[in-house]
């Protein structure tokens, strides 16, 4: 910041967050994921304003889903990048998808690809405290368990050599809205955000305002704290579960063939249910390519105490698990 008068509370907040949490090291190349909405334009401008202090090499990345409503958006962001004199990278989807989950997956993969190709160590997204509150509620309703409730984290590895960072997790959408207005930033209005057919939008526009009015005006902060506390719990539990799984799998490592993998029931029995479930989920993630669900974890957990020869019904692809004495044996398909 050259002029002190431009320094607002939100600048101070972000600067402090970056220092305390050590999210972005100084003087590094930083790729900012810009969707064109208020949050990412706010983040981009804030990082530009902080740049003289931190000396990053900033750039913008945009992922074009080729959705009809986004026509002209990529050009708009490119112009914004030009007006700020920073590099602009664009990835365009090969296939148009309407699934929110598939679009997100492609986006993160595209961002990772740009970062690796052009050697950016960080990809930064503008998820806010409001996004985090929505995610907590959304995942609570879907039944993801604690892991889903802590899912929007400050940072995580994106691809080899690239860290995904979310520095705005303590800033609300209201604050980013006020900032873009004050700064006259050219926000692209996303018609999709208004569409109440999507669960996320109903949570944003109906559920959270209701909770704010009738229960807690600071509900977003409260949900953010919940996510923060759960994150540490989950990290702890996952580490303990990994060690349980490794013991229960004996000498087998993750790289061994997945045709006949097994778990020792005597070792699993010594652990509490929370760790048994986690160890089994980790085991399933190793042995089957498909996403693991609650019923599958419960079916195998039941085998820890089940009589000899008990077996689960078939998993996708014909795989199943069966008790053989002290062991739960995983078979990828009949006859393996
Ligand atoms: N098309 C895009 N191109 C580049 N970055 C994007 C794009 N869409 C979203 N982002 C980045 O991701 C952030 C979050 O956006 P959004 O909430 O739409 O994503 P999401 O992946 O659906 O979020 P969540 O992970 O909470 O489900 C944005 O602030 C922006 O930084």
From TrEMBL:
Q: Where are the transmembrane segments?
A: none
Q: Where is the tRNA(Ile)-lysidine/2-thiocytidine synthase N-terminal domain?
A: 30-206
Mainly resides where? Answer: cytoplasm
Known EC number: 6.3.4.19
The cellular component terms of Gene Ontology attached to this UniProt record, alphabetical and capped at eight, are: cytoplasm
A molecular-function term among this protein's GO annotations: tRNA(Ile)-lysidine synthase activity
Task: Give GO terms for biological process.
Answer: tRNA modification
Which compartments does it reside in? Cytoplasm
Which residues hold ATP? 35-40
Give me the reactions it catalyses. Answer: cytidine(34) in tRNA(Ile2) + L-lysine + ATP = lysidine(34) in tRNA(Ile2) + AMP + diphosphate + H(+)
Function description = Ligates lysine onto the cytidine present at position 34 of the AUA codon-specific tRNA(Ile) that contains the anticodon CAU, in an ATP-dependent manner. Cytidine is converted to lysidine, thus changing the amino acid specificity of the tRNA from methionine to isoleucine.
Q: Which family does it belong to?
A: Belongs to the tRNA(Ile)-lysidine synthase family.
Fetch the HAMAP family from UniProt: tRNA_Ile_lys_synt
Domain comment (free text): The N-terminal region contains the highly conserved SGGXDS motif, predicted to be a P-loop motif involved in ATP binding.
- This protein is called what? tRNA(Ile)-lysidine synthase
Protein species of origin? Coleofasciculus chthonoplastes PCC 7420
């Amino acid at each position: 910041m050259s002029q002190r008068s431009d320094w607002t509370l939100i600048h101070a907040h972000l600067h402090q967050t970056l220092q305390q949490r050590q999210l972005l090291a100084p003087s590094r190349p930083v790729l900012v994921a810009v969707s064109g909405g208020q949050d990412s334009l706010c983040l981009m401008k804030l990082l530009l304003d902080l740049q003289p202090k931190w000396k990053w090499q900033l750039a913008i990345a945009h992922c074009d889903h080729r959705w009809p409503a986004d026509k002209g958006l990529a050009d708009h962001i490119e112009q914004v990048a030009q007006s700020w004199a920073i590099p602009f990278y664009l990835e365009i989807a090969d296939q148009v998808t309407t699934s929110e989950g598939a679009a997100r997956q492609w986006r993160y993969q595209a961002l990772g690809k740009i970062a690796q190709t052009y050697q950016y160590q960080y990809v930064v997204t503008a998820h806010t405290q409001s996004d985090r509150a929505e995610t907590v509620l959304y995942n609570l309703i879907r039944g993801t368990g604690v892991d889903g409730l802590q899912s929007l984290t400050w940072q995580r590895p994106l691809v080899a050599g690239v860290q995904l960072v979310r520095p705005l997790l303590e800033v609300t959408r209201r604050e980013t809205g006020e900032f873009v207005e004050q700064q006259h930033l050219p926000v692209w209005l996303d018609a999709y955000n208004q569409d109440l057919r999507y669960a996320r939008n109903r949570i944003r526009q109906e559920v959270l305002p209701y909770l704010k009015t009738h229960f807690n005006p600071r509900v977003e902060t409260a949900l953010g704290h919940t996510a923060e506390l759960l994150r540490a719990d989950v990290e702890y539990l996952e580490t303990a579960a990994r060690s349980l799984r490794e013991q229960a799998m004996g000498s087998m490592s993750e790289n061994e063939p997945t045709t006949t993998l097994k778990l020792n029931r005597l070792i699993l029995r010594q652990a509490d249910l929370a760790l048994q479930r986690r160890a089994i989920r980790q085991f399933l993630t190793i042995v089957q390519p498909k996403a693991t669900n609650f019923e599958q974890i419960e079916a195998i957990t039941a085998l820890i105490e089940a009589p000899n020869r008990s077996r689960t019904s078939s998993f996708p692809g014909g795989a199943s698990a069966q008790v053989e004495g002290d062991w739960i044996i995983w078979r990828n398909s009949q006859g393996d």
